[in-house]
Amino acid sequence: MTSHYTNTVSAVYLLFCLFITSASSSSFIRQYTDDFNTNIQQENRARVNPIQGEAHYLHKHQQISSRDNELSASNTVTKGLRDRPPQSYSLKMESFNTLLKSTTERYETRPFSAAGYNWTLVVYPNGNKNDNGAGFLSLYVTIDNSYLPPHQEVYVDLRFYVFNRVEKKYFTIQGTNGWRFSFFKPMWGFSQVIPVSTFKEPRNGYLYDGDHCEFGVDVTIPSVFQTSELFSVAEKFQNPRFTWNIRGFSTLLGGTYYSDMFSVGGRNWNIQVNPSGRASGEGKALSMYLILNANETLRPYEKIYVRAKLRLVNQRFTFNNIERQIDHWFNGPGFGEAFGWGEHEFISLSDLRNPWKGFLVNDMLVAQVDFEAVSSTKYFPN
Ligand SMILES: *[C@@H]1O[C@H](CO)[C@@H](O)[C@H](O)[C@H]1NC(C)=O
Ligand SMILES: *[C@@H]1O[C@H](CO)[C@@H](O)[C@H](O)[C@H]1NC(C)=O
Protein backbone atom coordinates (compact mmCIF):
# COMPACT_ATOMS: atom_id res chain seq x y z
CA MET A 1 0.00 0.00 0.00
CA THR A 2 2.64 2.47 1.07
CA SER A 3 4.87 1.76 -1.91
CA HIS A 4 1.94 2.14 -4.24
CA TYR A 5 1.31 5.59 -2.86
CA THR A 6 4.93 6.50 -3.23
CA ASN A 7 4.86 5.49 -6.88
CA THR A 8 1.79 7.54 -7.52
CA VAL A 9 3.22 10.50 -5.73
CA SER A 10 6.33 10.30 -7.90
CA ALA A 11 4.18 10.14 -11.02
CA VAL A 12 2.20 13.11 -9.90
CA TYR A 13 5.37 14.92 -9.08
CA LEU A 14 6.77 14.27 -12.55
CA LEU A 15 3.65 15.71 -14.14
CA PHE A 16 3.84 18.57 -11.74
CA CYS A 17 7.36 19.33 -12.91
CA LEU A 18 6.05 19.44 -16.46
CA PHE A 19 3.52 22.01 -15.33
CA ILE A 20 6.20 24.11 -13.74
CA THR A 21 8.35 24.14 -16.84
CA SER A 22 5.44 25.10 -19.04
CA ALA A 23 3.99 27.68 -16.69
CA SER A 24 5.17 31.19 -17.21
CA SER A 25 3.49 33.25 -14.53
CA SER A 26 4.44 32.79 -10.93
CA SER A 27 0.87 32.86 -9.69
CA PHE A 28 0.11 29.94 -11.94
CA ILE A 29 2.92 28.00 -10.38
CA ARG A 30 1.80 28.87 -6.91
CA GLN A 31 -1.68 27.70 -7.59
CA TYR A 32 -0.46 24.33 -8.67
CA THR A 33 1.91 24.10 -5.77
CA ASP A 34 -0.95 24.61 -3.38
CA ASP A 35 -3.08 22.07 -5.17
CA PHE A 36 -0.25 19.64 -5.15
CA ASN A 37 0.18 19.87 -1.39
CA THR A 38 -3.51 19.31 -0.86
CA ASN A 39 -3.29 16.34 -3.17
CA ILE A 40 -0.73 14.63 -1.02
CA GLN A 41 -2.49 15.31 2.22
CA GLN A 42 -5.81 14.08 0.99
CA GLU A 43 -4.32 11.11 -0.70
CA ASN A 44 -2.84 9.83 2.51
CA ARG A 45 -6.26 9.76 4.00
CA ALA A 46 -7.99 8.22 0.97
CA ARG A 47 -9.54 4.83 1.47
CA VAL A 48 -10.44 2.06 -0.88
CA ASN A 49 -14.13 1.89 -1.42
CA PRO A 50 -15.20 -1.47 0.02
CA ILE A 51 -18.51 -1.65 -1.79
CA GLN A 52 -16.97 -1.58 -5.23
CA GLY A 53 -13.48 -2.69 -4.59
CA GLU A 54 -11.46 -0.38 -6.69
CA ALA A 55 -13.35 2.29 -8.58
CA HIS A 56 -11.49 2.38 -11.84
CA TYR A 57 -12.30 6.01 -12.50
CA LEU A 58 -10.64 7.23 -9.36
CA HIS A 59 -6.96 6.96 -9.43
CA LYS A 60 -5.25 6.70 -6.12
CA HIS A 61 -4.01 10.25 -6.23
CA GLN A 62 -7.48 11.59 -6.67
CA GLN A 63 -8.32 14.82 -5.03
CA ILE A 64 -11.55 15.13 -3.18
CA SER A 65 -12.74 18.67 -3.20
CA SER A 66 -15.93 20.22 -2.11
CA ARG A 67 -17.45 23.61 -2.21
CA ASP A 68 -18.17 23.55 1.50
CA ASN A 69 -14.48 23.81 2.21
CA GLU A 70 -13.68 26.22 -0.54
CA LEU A 71 -16.36 28.81 -0.17
CA SER A 72 -15.06 32.11 -1.39
CA ALA A 73 -16.74 35.47 -1.52
CA SER A 74 -17.46 35.01 -5.19
CA ASN A 75 -19.17 31.68 -4.76
CA THR A 76 -22.47 31.27 -3.03
CA VAL A 77 -24.11 27.95 -2.35
CA THR A 78 -27.77 28.04 -3.20
CA LYS A 79 -30.20 25.57 -1.73
CA GLY A 80 -33.80 25.34 -2.81
CA LEU A 81 -36.74 23.18 -3.73
CA ARG A 82 -37.88 22.40 -7.22
CA ASP A 83 -40.44 20.25 -9.00
CA ARG A 84 -38.41 19.19 -11.98
CA PRO A 85 -36.53 15.90 -11.55
CA PRO A 86 -32.79 15.60 -12.21
CA GLN A 87 -31.70 15.88 -15.82
CA SER A 88 -28.49 13.91 -15.92
CA TYR A 89 -28.82 11.03 -13.51
CA SER A 90 -31.06 9.71 -10.75
CA LEU A 91 -30.16 7.20 -8.06
CA LYS A 92 -33.00 5.62 -6.10
CA MET A 93 -32.13 3.55 -3.08
CA GLU A 94 -34.50 1.23 -1.31
CA SER A 95 -32.45 0.21 1.67
CA PHE A 96 -30.67 3.27 2.75
CA ASN A 97 -30.66 2.37 6.45
CA THR A 98 -28.63 -0.69 5.68
CA LEU A 99 -26.03 1.52 4.12
CA LEU A 100 -26.17 3.98 7.00
CA LYS A 101 -25.50 1.21 9.50
CA SER A 102 -22.86 -0.55 7.46
CA THR A 103 -19.22 0.37 7.29
CA THR A 104 -19.74 1.38 3.68
CA GLU A 105 -18.21 4.76 3.28
CA ARG A 106 -19.61 5.59 -0.12
CA TYR A 107 -21.83 4.35 -2.88
CA GLU A 108 -20.79 5.08 -6.44
CA THR A 109 -23.19 4.69 -9.38
CA ARG A 110 -22.34 3.18 -12.71
CA PRO A 111 -21.04 5.70 -15.25
CA PHE A 112 -23.53 7.89 -17.05
CA SER A 113 -22.89 10.18 -19.92
CA ALA A 114 -23.59 13.90 -19.86
CA ALA A 115 -22.20 16.92 -21.66
CA GLY A 116 -19.77 14.81 -23.64
CA TYR A 117 -18.08 13.05 -20.71
CA ASN A 118 -18.70 10.06 -18.49
CA TRP A 119 -19.48 10.63 -14.83
CA THR A 120 -20.47 8.80 -11.69
CA LEU A 121 -22.56 10.05 -8.81
CA VAL A 122 -21.05 9.37 -5.40
CA VAL A 123 -23.05 9.32 -2.16
CA TYR A 124 -21.47 9.29 1.28
CA PRO A 125 -24.40 8.24 3.51
CA ASN A 126 -22.61 9.30 6.66
CA GLY A 127 -20.57 12.05 5.14
CA ASN A 128 -17.11 12.23 3.67
CA LYS A 129 -14.90 12.55 6.73
CA ASN A 130 -11.91 13.40 4.57
CA ASP A 131 -13.73 16.49 3.39
CA ASN A 132 -15.20 17.85 6.61
CA GLY A 133 -18.42 16.01 5.92
CA ALA A 134 -18.78 13.93 9.08
CA GLY A 135 -22.39 13.97 10.27
CA PHE A 136 -23.67 15.16 6.90
CA LEU A 137 -24.82 13.53 3.73
CA SER A 138 -22.15 14.21 1.07
CA LEU A 139 -22.76 14.18 -2.67
CA TYR A 140 -20.08 14.23 -5.36
CA VAL A 141 -19.61 13.67 -9.03
CA THR A 142 -16.51 12.13 -10.55
CA ILE A 143 -15.43 12.53 -14.13
CA ASP A 144 -13.99 9.61 -16.05
CA ASN A 145 -10.52 11.06 -16.45
CA SER A 146 -9.02 8.14 -18.36
CA TYR A 147 -9.03 10.18 -21.57
CA LEU A 148 -8.39 13.59 -20.05
CA PRO A 149 -5.04 15.11 -20.95
CA PRO A 150 -3.33 16.32 -17.76
CA HIS A 151 -3.51 19.98 -18.70
CA GLN A 152 -7.17 19.99 -19.65
CA GLU A 153 -9.78 21.44 -17.34
CA VAL A 154 -13.45 20.71 -17.77
CA TYR A 155 -15.53 23.55 -16.46
CA VAL A 156 -18.83 22.22 -15.18
CA ASP A 157 -22.00 23.41 -13.49
CA LEU A 158 -23.39 20.91 -10.99
CA ARG A 159 -26.74 20.77 -9.30
CA PHE A 160 -27.38 17.98 -6.82
CA TYR A 161 -30.83 16.72 -5.87
CA VAL A 162 -32.32 14.95 -2.87
CA PHE A 163 -35.98 14.06 -3.22
CA ASN A 164 -38.26 15.24 -0.45
CA ARG A 165 -41.42 13.18 -0.23
CA VAL A 166 -43.21 15.53 2.19
CA GLU A 167 -42.76 18.56 -0.09
CA LYS A 168 -43.07 16.38 -3.20
CA LYS A 169 -40.15 18.38 -4.49
CA TYR A 170 -36.45 18.00 -4.97
CA PHE A 171 -34.15 19.67 -2.51
CA THR A 172 -31.34 21.14 -4.62
CA ILE A 173 -27.89 22.44 -3.86
CA GLN A 174 -25.60 24.24 -6.27
CA GLY A 175 -22.91 26.90 -6.35
CA THR A 176 -22.72 30.10 -8.37
CA ASN A 177 -19.27 29.22 -9.66
CA GLY A 178 -18.64 26.18 -11.76
CA TRP A 179 -16.25 23.39 -10.90
CA ARG A 180 -12.99 22.74 -12.67
CA PHE A 181 -12.63 19.02 -13.18
CA SER A 182 -9.29 17.76 -14.35
CA PHE A 183 -7.17 14.67 -14.37
CA PHE A 184 -5.92 15.64 -10.91
CA LYS A 185 -9.27 16.79 -9.61
CA PRO A 186 -11.74 14.29 -10.96
CA MET A 187 -14.18 14.56 -8.06
CA TRP A 188 -16.15 17.56 -6.89
CA GLY A 189 -19.25 18.04 -4.82
CA PHE A 190 -20.69 19.09 -1.49
CA SER A 191 -19.57 17.43 1.71
CA GLN A 192 -22.31 19.01 3.82
CA VAL A 193 -25.55 18.64 1.90
CA ILE A 194 -27.94 17.79 4.75
CA PRO A 195 -27.18 16.76 8.36
CA VAL A 196 -27.57 13.00 8.62
CA SER A 197 -29.90 13.46 11.61
CA THR A 198 -32.20 15.65 9.50
CA PHE A 199 -32.01 13.22 6.64
CA LYS A 200 -32.85 10.21 8.79
CA GLU A 201 -35.88 11.73 10.51
CA PRO A 202 -38.83 10.28 8.52
CA ARG A 203 -41.14 13.24 9.02
CA ASN A 204 -38.65 15.45 7.17
CA GLY A 205 -39.50 13.55 4.01
CA TYR A 206 -36.09 12.45 2.75
CA LEU A 207 -36.46 8.83 3.85
CA TYR A 208 -39.89 7.46 2.96
CA ASP A 209 -41.68 4.13 2.57
CA GLY A 210 -39.40 2.60 5.12
CA ASP A 211 -36.02 3.70 3.93
CA HIS A 212 -36.31 4.73 0.33
CA CYS A 213 -34.63 7.83 -0.98
CA GLU A 214 -33.61 9.42 -4.24
CA PHE A 215 -30.56 11.43 -5.25
CA GLY A 216 -29.77 13.06 -8.54
CA VAL A 217 -27.50 15.40 -10.37
CA ASP A 218 -27.42 17.75 -13.32
CA VAL A 219 -24.07 17.96 -15.03
CA THR A 220 -23.91 20.78 -17.53
CA ILE A 221 -21.04 22.35 -19.34
CA PRO A 222 -22.00 25.96 -19.70
CA SER A 223 -21.36 27.21 -23.19
CA VAL A 224 -19.99 30.68 -23.69
CA PHE A 225 -21.99 33.02 -25.90
CA GLN A 226 -21.08 32.98 -29.58
CA THR A 227 -22.86 36.17 -30.50
CA SER A 228 -22.94 39.42 -28.68
CA GLU A 229 -23.40 43.13 -29.00
CA LEU A 230 -21.59 46.12 -27.62
CA PHE A 231 -23.66 49.20 -26.94
CA SER A 232 -21.88 52.49 -26.36
CA VAL A 233 -22.83 56.13 -26.16
CA ALA A 234 -20.63 58.97 -27.38
CA GLU A 235 -21.00 62.29 -25.60
CA LYS A 236 -18.11 64.30 -26.98
CA PHE A 237 -18.27 65.48 -30.57
CA GLN A 238 -16.01 67.65 -32.65
CA ASN A 239 -18.94 69.56 -34.03
CA PRO A 240 -21.97 68.89 -31.89
CA ARG A 241 -23.90 71.81 -33.43
CA PHE A 242 -25.52 72.13 -36.83
CA THR A 243 -27.16 75.38 -37.87
CA TRP A 244 -29.44 75.72 -40.85
CA ASN A 245 -30.11 79.24 -42.10
CA ILE A 246 -33.29 79.02 -44.16
CA ARG A 247 -33.16 82.10 -46.37
CA GLY A 248 -36.07 83.35 -48.47
CA PHE A 249 -38.39 81.64 -46.10
CA SER A 250 -41.50 83.36 -47.46
CA THR A 251 -40.84 81.86 -50.89
CA LEU A 252 -41.11 78.31 -49.56
CA LEU A 253 -44.33 76.55 -50.43
CA GLY A 254 -46.09 74.01 -48.27
CA GLY A 255 -44.50 70.59 -48.13
CA THR A 256 -41.31 69.22 -46.66
CA TYR A 257 -37.81 70.71 -46.74
CA TYR A 258 -34.58 69.11 -45.61
CA SER A 259 -31.38 70.74 -44.50
CA ASP A 260 -28.06 69.66 -45.95
CA MET A 261 -26.86 66.41 -44.52
CA PHE A 262 -24.54 66.68 -41.52
CA SER A 263 -22.64 64.09 -39.58
CA VAL A 264 -22.49 63.67 -35.79
CA GLY A 265 -21.70 60.57 -33.77
CA GLY A 266 -20.94 58.45 -36.81
CA ARG A 267 -24.36 58.99 -38.37
CA ASN A 268 -25.74 61.36 -40.98
CA TRP A 269 -28.69 63.54 -40.10
CA ASN A 270 -31.01 66.15 -41.52
CA ILE A 271 -33.32 68.72 -40.04
CA GLN A 272 -36.74 68.53 -41.58
CA VAL A 273 -39.04 71.53 -41.70
CA ASN A 274 -42.65 71.76 -42.86
CA PRO A 275 -43.24 75.53 -43.17
CA SER A 276 -47.02 75.25 -43.06
CA GLY A 277 -47.16 72.31 -40.73
CA ARG A 278 -48.04 68.68 -40.98
CA ALA A 279 -50.12 66.25 -38.94
CA SER A 280 -51.68 68.11 -36.02
CA GLY A 281 -49.72 71.24 -36.96
CA GLU A 282 -51.10 71.42 -40.49
CA GLY A 283 -52.20 74.93 -41.39
CA LYS A 284 -51.48 76.40 -37.97
CA ALA A 285 -47.86 75.74 -37.01
CA LEU A 286 -44.42 75.08 -38.39
CA SER A 287 -43.32 71.45 -37.89
CA MET A 288 -39.69 70.62 -37.30
CA TYR A 289 -37.86 67.33 -36.75
CA LEU A 290 -34.44 65.79 -36.48
CA ILE A 291 -34.28 62.79 -38.81
CA LEU A 292 -31.74 60.15 -39.61
CA ASN A 293 -30.54 60.61 -43.19
CA ALA A 294 -32.40 58.42 -45.64
CA ASN A 295 -29.19 56.74 -46.73
CA GLU A 296 -28.32 55.51 -43.25
CA THR A 297 -28.72 51.77 -42.83
CA LEU A 298 -29.49 50.09 -39.54
CA ARG A 299 -29.16 46.41 -38.82
CA PRO A 300 -32.28 44.50 -37.92
CA TYR A 301 -33.36 45.52 -34.41
CA GLU A 302 -30.67 48.18 -34.20
CA LYS A 303 -31.69 51.42 -32.49
CA ILE A 304 -29.83 54.67 -32.04
CA TYR A 305 -30.25 56.63 -28.86
CA VAL A 306 -30.01 60.38 -29.25
CA ARG A 307 -30.03 63.16 -26.73
CA ALA A 308 -30.00 66.60 -28.33
CA LYS A 309 -31.57 70.02 -28.34
CA LEU A 310 -33.56 71.04 -31.36
CA ARG A 311 -34.28 74.77 -31.57
CA LEU A 312 -35.43 77.75 -33.53
CA VAL A 313 -32.98 80.54 -32.88
CA ASN A 314 -34.43 83.87 -31.88
CA GLN A 315 -32.49 86.40 -33.92
CA ARG A 316 -33.52 89.42 -31.81
CA PHE A 317 -33.78 88.19 -28.24
CA THR A 318 -30.95 85.83 -27.45
CA PHE A 319 -32.69 84.06 -24.59
CA ASN A 320 -35.99 83.52 -26.36
CA ASN A 321 -35.07 80.55 -28.50
CA ILE A 322 -37.68 77.87 -28.84
CA GLU A 323 -35.97 74.69 -27.77
CA ARG A 324 -37.10 71.10 -27.43
CA GLN A 325 -35.09 68.41 -25.69
CA ILE A 326 -34.68 65.26 -27.76
CA ASP A 327 -34.36 62.04 -25.80
CA HIS A 328 -35.24 59.44 -28.30
CA TRP A 329 -34.46 56.05 -29.83
CA PHE A 330 -34.23 56.16 -33.62
CA ASN A 331 -35.26 52.91 -35.23
CA GLY A 332 -34.26 53.73 -38.75
CA PRO A 333 -34.10 56.38 -41.40
CA GLY A 334 -37.28 57.93 -42.67
CA PHE A 335 -40.42 59.39 -41.39
CA GLY A 336 -42.64 58.73 -38.47
CA GLU A 337 -42.24 58.29 -34.77
CA ALA A 338 -39.55 55.68 -34.90
CA PHE A 339 -37.45 57.57 -37.41
CA GLY A 340 -37.51 61.20 -36.50
CA TRP A 341 -38.15 63.25 -33.50
CA GLY A 342 -39.60 66.72 -33.29
CA GLU A 343 -42.78 68.66 -32.95
CA HIS A 344 -45.75 68.92 -35.27
CA GLU A 345 -46.35 72.30 -33.64
CA PHE A 346 -42.87 73.66 -33.10
CA ILE A 347 -44.00 77.28 -33.39
CA SER A 348 -47.42 78.65 -34.31
CA LEU A 349 -47.62 80.30 -37.70
CA SER A 350 -48.82 83.53 -36.11
CA ASP A 351 -45.82 83.72 -33.78
CA LEU A 352 -43.54 82.83 -36.65
CA ARG A 353 -44.87 85.62 -38.86
CA ASN A 354 -44.98 88.23 -36.12
CA PRO A 355 -41.85 90.35 -36.78
CA TRP A 356 -41.70 91.38 -33.10
CA LYS A 357 -41.15 87.77 -32.00
CA GLY A 358 -37.74 87.66 -33.67
CA PHE A 359 -37.77 84.31 -35.47
CA LEU A 360 -38.08 85.57 -39.03
CA VAL A 361 -35.55 88.31 -39.69
CA ASN A 362 -34.78 89.44 -43.21
CA ASP A 363 -36.90 86.54 -44.37
CA MET A 364 -34.50 84.09 -42.74
CA LEU A 365 -35.35 81.36 -40.22
CA VAL A 366 -32.56 79.75 -38.21
CA ALA A 367 -32.96 76.12 -37.21
CA GLN A 368 -30.34 74.46 -35.05
CA VAL A 369 -29.54 71.22 -33.32
CA ASP A 370 -27.01 70.55 -30.53
CA PHE A 371 -26.09 66.91 -30.04
CA GLU A 372 -25.36 65.72 -26.51
CA ALA A 373 -25.28 61.94 -26.96
CA VAL A 374 -25.45 59.46 -29.80
CA SER A 375 -25.29 55.72 -29.28
CA SER A 376 -23.81 53.05 -31.49
CA THR A 377 -24.04 49.31 -31.34
CA LYS A 378 -21.49 46.80 -32.60
CA TYR A 379 -22.62 43.27 -33.29
CA PHE A 380 -20.42 40.17 -33.13
CA PRO A 381 -20.11 38.40 -35.42
CA ASN A 382 -20.61 41.39 -37.59
C1 LIG B 1 -17.77 6.98 -22.07
O1 LIG B 1 -17.95 5.61 -21.85
C2 LIG B 1 -18.14 4.86 -23.03
C3 LIG B 1 -18.46 3.43 -22.62
O2 LIG B 1 -17.52 2.95 -21.72
C4 LIG B 1 -16.88 4.94 -23.88
O3 LIG B 1 -17.06 4.24 -25.08
C5 LIG B 1 -16.62 6.40 -24.21
O4 LIG B 1 -15.42 6.53 -24.92
C6 LIG B 1 -16.53 7.22 -22.94
N1 LIG B 1 -16.43 8.62 -23.30
C7 LIG B 1 -15.57 9.45 -22.72
C8 LIG B 1 -15.58 10.85 -23.23
O5 LIG B 1 -14.81 9.14 -21.81
C1 LIG C 1 -28.75 59.20 -50.71
O1 LIG C 1 -27.68 58.88 -51.57
C2 LIG C 1 -27.94 59.13 -52.93
C3 LIG C 1 -26.79 58.60 -53.75
O2 LIG C 1 -25.57 58.95 -53.12
C4 LIG C 1 -28.16 60.61 -53.14
O3 LIG C 1 -28.45 60.87 -54.49
C5 LIG C 1 -29.32 61.07 -52.29
O4 LIG C 1 -29.48 62.46 -52.37
C6 LIG C 1 -29.09 60.67 -50.84
N1 LIG C 1 -30.28 60.97 -50.07
C7 LIG C 1 -30.28 61.79 -49.05
C8 LIG C 1 -31.59 62.00 -48.38
O5 LIG C 1 -29.29 62.34 -48.64
TrEMBL record:
CDD domains: MATH (cd00121)
Keywords carried by this UniProt record: Signal
Top-level taxon of the source organism: Eukaryota
Range of residues in the leader sequence: 1-25
Domain MATH: 86-219, 239-371
Coiled-coil stretches noted in the UniProt entry, renumbered to this chain: none
Protein name (database record): MATH domain-containing protein
InterPro entries associated with the record: MATH/TRAF_dom, TRAF-like
Keyword Signal: yes
